[in-house]
Specification:
The protein is an alpha/beta fold. The chain folds into three domains: 5-128, Rossmann fold, CATH 3.40.50; 145-380, tm_1862 like domain (pyruvate-formate lyase- activating enzyme), CATH 3.80.30.20; 382-445, Beta Barrel (OB fold (Dihydrolipoamide Acetyltransferase, E2P)). It is built from 14 helices and 21 strands. It has helices at residues 14-31, 56-73, 83-89, 91-96, 112-122, 135-138, 167-171, 179-191, 219-227, 247-255, 272-278, 284-297, 316-329, 356-381, and strands at residues 4-10, 33-35, 44-49, 78-82, 102-104, 126-128, 149-153, 155-156, 175-176, 196-200, 209-210, 216-217, 234-238, 262-264, 302-309, 333-338, 385-393, 400-405, 410-414, 423-431, 436-443. α1 links the parallel β1 and β2. α9 (219-227) packs parallel to α10, α10 runs parallel beside α12 and α13 packs parallel to α14. Bound molecules: S-adenosyl-L-homocysteine and FE3-S4 cluster. Residues 158, 160-162, 165, 167-168, 202-203, 241 line the site of FE3-S4 cluster. S-adenosyl-L-homocysteine (SAH) binds at residues 13, 52-53, 164-165, 167, 202-203, 239, 266, 268, 306, 308, 337, 339-340, 342. Residues 144-376 form the Radical SAM core domain.
């Protein structure tokens, strides 16, 4: 049988990118489908959706409307909707778009092969958005490395229930993979040339992995073990929750040089009143205290964050408190969003009091400030030497290589493709808004 084509469009977070790669691996094995970037030639077409922010559902339905004509041309085409919108809407997707063949949640990726067979046999929408917990990870093929960096999902879901957030409802409660499973995946990736691992979880520092001896490993321990694995040169993790950012994890920044000097630590707001309404479980001062101790452990750490502007009842002084935290924490990057009520969340019952234009005004002010801080941070890097893991040729020229420094900034420098996968020392010569330029001064021997 000739091989078919699979097209996946991914929306949203890194967990979704990870899941999309797993969908491709699973269907390559079961149905000989090769991934394509062209939806017109697909035999199976999947949307891996996100519902974390506004109008996500609507975007999915309009995308589906656009894709529908492909079915007239190719009646054998299967269309599937996965991810968080699928999880939230379930059967409602089939009601509204009956030409959708599969609806699957973030936890049922491994059941795709069966669902594809059923959809082909039945000619009606097959829906599976259950939460079979860790089963997903036990049924995935070996990871396939693409280049020197890789994601490894260590936990799924979130049990924090921040009042604005839909994730606990779409991805379920926190569930961690056993430590040995995670370490085996890391080893398999390292054997294929991966040098940098990013541990993923919606709330990754809530990781509690069962160990063979019956004890439980936390993220700090996982980092310590991973640093000892042959081939692994750098470790990252995302996304963390400040309330569970333990002393051991802070200490890891002092103790484990392979832990990258970068942390994404969402703060969401700077006003204690708003933080309490969001049910974040910490104050602004407690957040800043963790930042202070992180900087003690790793003086050159780069920090980024997530911020929501215009949460219900947010006043000018609440917003000023957010601006203060941005300054005090010294973020060099932030993902910032206007608040939008998400159906089914507690905050959706509150009146959305901040007018849209006021939200946008605040967002603009905030983004300008963060941009200035980011630029100042980048300029201060000029003249320093950064360790860069070379990932690929730069977009502009094959004689230029691109890689990320420990602080997560992209660095471009003259070099050849033989350097890909190596950790090199680069002196930073120029700071640009989204990247750095530099000159290579030395490189390690091939690992
Ligand atoms: N811990 C998660 C956070 C998921 S949501 C992670 O792994 O990324 C990502 C970000 O979207 C949140 O940190 C928050 O800043 C933003 N967000 C979530 N719900 C939102 C809402 N209702 N309105 C606006 N922004 C929201
Ligand atoms: Fe969402 Fe809060 Fe969890 S932002 S993913 S409920 S930590």
């Amino acid at each position: 049988m000739p091989r078919g084509k699979l097209y996946i469009k991914t929306f949203g977070c890194q967990m979704n990118s990870y899941d999309s790669d797993k969908m491709a691996d699973v269907l390559a094995r079961s149905h000989q489908l090769d991934r394509t970037h062209n939806p017109d030639e697909a035999d199976v077409l999947l949307l891996n959706t996100c519902s974390v922010r506004e109008k996500a559902q609507e975007k999915v339905f309009s995308e589906l409307g656009r894709l529908r004509p492909l079915k007239d041309r190719n009646p054998g085409l299967l269309i599937g909707v996965g991810g968080c919108v699928a999880s939230q809407e379930g059967d409602a997707i089939a009601d509204r778009a009956p030409y959708v063949d599969l609806v699957f949640g973030p936890q049922t990726v491994h059941r795709l092969p069966e669902m594809v067979d059923q959809a082909r046999a039945k000619r009606r929408t097959v829906v599976d958005i259950s939460f079979p917990e860790i089963e997903k990870f036990d049924n995935l093929p070996e990871p396939r490395a693409e280049g020197p960096t890789a994601f490894v999902s260590v936990m799924e879901g979130c049990s924090k229930y921040c009042t604005f957030c839909v994730v606990p409802y779409t991805r379920g409660e926190e569930i961690s993979r056993p430590l040995d499973d995670v370490l085996t995946e890391v080893a398999q990736l390292a054997e294929q040339g991966v040098r940098e691992i990013t541990f993923l979880g919606q709330n990754v520092n809530a990781y509690r992995g069962a160990m063979a001896d019956g004890a439980t490993a936390d993220l700090a321990l996982l980092i310590h073990y991973t640093a000892e694995m042959p081939g692994i040169q750098r470790i990252r993790f995302t996304t963390s929750h400040p309330a569970e950012f333990t002393d051991d994890l802070i200490a890891a920044y002092a103790e484990v040089p392979k832990l990258a000097g970068y942390l994404h630590l969402p703060v969401q707001a700077g006003s204690d009143r708003i933080l309490a309404m969001m049910k974040r479980g910490h104050t602004a001062a407690e957040y800043l205290d963790k930042v202070r101790r992180l900087r003690e452990a790793r003086p050159d750490i780069a920090l980024s964050t997530d911020i929501i502007v215009g949460f219900p009842t947010e006043s000018d002084s609440d917003f000023a408190a957010t601006m203060n935290v941005i300054h005090e924490a010294g973020f060099d990057h932030a993902f910032s969003f206007n608040y939008s009520p998400r159906p089914g969340t507690p905050a959706a019952n509150l009146a959305d009091t901040v007018p849209a234009d006021e939200k946008s005004k605040r967002l603009q002010i905030l983004q300008n400030r963060v941009r200035q801080q980011g630029m100042a941070y980048a300029e201060a890097l000029v003249g320093t030497t950064q360790q860069v893991l070379v990932e690929r040729a730069s977009v502009k020229s094959p004689n230029q290589m691109a890689g990320r420094a420990g602080n997560n900034r992209w660095v471009n420098f003259d070099g050849d493709a033989a350097l890909i996968g190596r950790m090199v020392d680069v002196v930073i010569t120029e700071a640009l808004p989204n990247s750095l330029r530099g000159r290579m001064v030395s490189h390690s021997v091939a690992a």
